[in-house]
Structures are given as structure tokens and as C-alpha cells.
Write a structure and sequence with these properties.
Length: 222
């Protein structure tokens, strides 16, 4: 179900922000429970025209009714900003969103790991000198990063937040998994995986955001 009414969210966040234990929520000290202003219809139309996309409805209505960024899961939603007449998202990892290929389909529907098939890292015991081992290790990690961090893995993905230690969560903008939330765990060679609800259904933006909000409310009450 598409959530088109977000009118309850600002008040719920405001209530959370004044709770004495609000700072105990993971990431709250970063986003401080603050919301940036929502976008206007004209701004959103300009954004979508520049990028050649239609944003998934749940995120689109959030931008219009609630905020362009700020308080949200983990360290908060990357803010959407207009810089020199161009729209983009900003934050730690927001640059992983390739604005030029955001309209191209993300082809995956199941978890995948770009690191699969790579050889094991070199073993120091296999080398006669530390210099040889260091050279082999440098070459290995250069190959590893070329494969794992290849930009084609991020086609059609909008990076929305980071969880620390280079773990990030994304919204699929185009392709068969459009509208779903995925995790980018490549920082730990975990690859990419779709997020799911307790009943096994895919997690969309609304259930992702509202799930975080509900969990925060339950945590400070406990």
C-alpha cells in the first residue's frame, strides 16, 4: 500500500525530540531530530526532469509533505539540495548515487555479491619477503576494489542514509525492484541485499521510515 499521508510524522518527531532519552536512539546525535523543509511541486518537477526519472511514490510524497532530508533511520536521511541549478543528495556516501545513471534499471531482484568469485587475499607465508607480500597485497586490494566498487552495481540506486562503517541503505529508483529498500554491505564484502518485512514482503520506503519511527518511540518508552 502506498502511503500518501505523512501528516502525523512531524508531530511524532517533535515529541521524540523533547523526550529526555531522545539522544539514546542510534544516530539521533547526528540528525538531532531536525527536518529540512519539504520540496515544492515545482522543485520536485525540476529534479525529476533533470534526472529523467519519476521518484517512487512513497518517497515522492515524503519529500512533498515532510522533508527533503534530516531525521530518519540511522544517521538520518541524506538531504536533497539544489546547488548551482542542479539537484543532488548530500551526505556521507550520498555521492555513490550516480545521477547520470539513476534512470537506468537496477537489474537485480535477489541479493548479490560482487566479491563472489574473487580469490582469497594473499597469505604472507607464501612469500619470501615482506616486500613481495606487500606488493601482492596491494595488487589484490586494487583488483578487489575495482570489482566490488564498480559503478555499474549502483545503477538505478538512490543512496538515502548511512549506518556508520560505510554501511548504507538505498532506494531502488528503476528496474524490477523499483520502490524497494536495499542494503549496501559491500564495505564488509557482504554485497547488496533487499530489505524485508517480518512477513517476508519487500520493504518499501514508507515501511522503512515508519518502522524506524515506531521502533524509536518504543525504545524511549521502554
Amino acid at each position: 500500500m502506498i502511503i500518501s499521508d505523512w501528516s502525523d510524522v512531524p508531530d511524532r518527531l517533535a515529541t521524540l525530540s523533547t523526550h529526555p532519552h531522545a539522544g539514546s536512539i542510534f544516530g539521533a546525535n547526528e540528525h538531532q531530530w531536525r527536518l529540512e523543509p519539504p520540496v515544492t511541486e515545482n522543485e520536485l518537477a525540476e529534479l525529476e526532469s533533470q534526472l529523467g526519472i519519476d521518484l517512487p511514490a512513497e518517497y515522492r510524497t515524503f519529500l512533498l509533505q515532510v522533508s527533503r532530508g534530516g531525521a530518519g533511520p540511522a544517521y538520518g536521511l541524506f538531504p536533497l539540495r539544489r546547488v548551482e541549478d542542479r539537484w543532488r543528495w548530500e551526505g556521507d556516501g550520498a555521492s555513490l548515487t550516480d545521477l547520470e545513471t539513476l534512470s537506468r534499471p537496477f537489474p537485480h531482484t535477489e541479493a548479490f555479491n560482487p566479491a563472489d568469485g574473487l580469490p582469497e587475499p594473499p597469505d604472507e607465508d607464501d612469500f619470501e619477503s615482506e616486500e613481495q607480500f606487500n606488493a601482492a597485497e596491494d595488487a589484490y586490494w586494487e583488483q578487489h576494489d575495482t570489482v566490488v566498487c564498480a559503478p555499474e552495481h549502483c545503477i538505478g540506486l538512490l543512496y538515502l542514509c548511512h549506518l556508520g562503517c560505510a554501511y548504507r541503505e538505498v532506494l531502488v529508483i528503476s528496474g524490477p525492484a523499483r520502490g524497494q529498500m536495499w542494503a549496501d554491505d559491500t564495505a564488509d564484502d557482504g554485497g547488496f541485499r533487499p530489505l524485508h518485512e517480518p512477513d517476508g514482503s519487500p520493504t518499501g520506503f514508507a515501511s522503512w521510515y515508519r518502522g524506524w519511527l515506531k521502533q524509536a518511540e518504543e525504545q524511549i518508552r521502554s
